[in-house]
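Record type: monomer structure entry
Structure origin: computed from sequence
Chain ID: A
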Amino acid sequence: MKYTILLLSAFVILLLTKCQQQKSTFTPVNAALKAAFYWKDGTYWIMRDDLSGKIDTFYVYNSNNHDAMGTASTGHGSTSNNYEQIEMGIKNYSSKANHLDSVDWSLIFFSNEIYISVINKDEIFSYYPFNIGNINPIESIHDSGFVLNIIGTYTQNGHDYTNVAEISHVERKYFYVTPYIDTFYFNADVGFIKMILNKPLDSIKRRVWELQSYYIVK
């Protein structure tokens, strides 16, 4: 009987220790973020390059929602961090024969965080809802994304857009060089309204895209 009690006690201790060592959490994408920016295939934006006059069409070609996982170690074991992640790929439509559409934008959302890449170089990072002065470094490169202003009504090409976040992106590869200083005008109704890409080290040093029309599928 005593031996049985000892075995049961050991089993309970082992079970409690294992539960303590292997914890699991799940974090969904913020509901407001998902409602605002989870664009589906068929979504498109027609934008005009303000400098060249060229009209570009950008469209969502791949939109998916999946669970991702990461593990964090602590002094009392490890925690499995499961989180919902939304990824979207956006292509620039090419009207030229025998020219493939280029992949120019990609977006990743998880929790209340937004990562946006433009032309495979620019990344801005912010929390949602947007707040002025929301500075967030990107650890992989010397980047930061921050909200400069929230514009109540922003007028462009005769259209009024409300609650527009003016978001800046800066990358500093070296202490004395700033290769990228970009500004984006962005809101929950249509996404990108205006993009000012400023790249002193690129062959095309500056590009301004302004929204002409759009179609959103959610």
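Annotation 1: The first strand starts at residue 22 and ends at 27.
Annotation 2: The domain at 2-215 is CATH 2.40.360 (YmcC-like fold).
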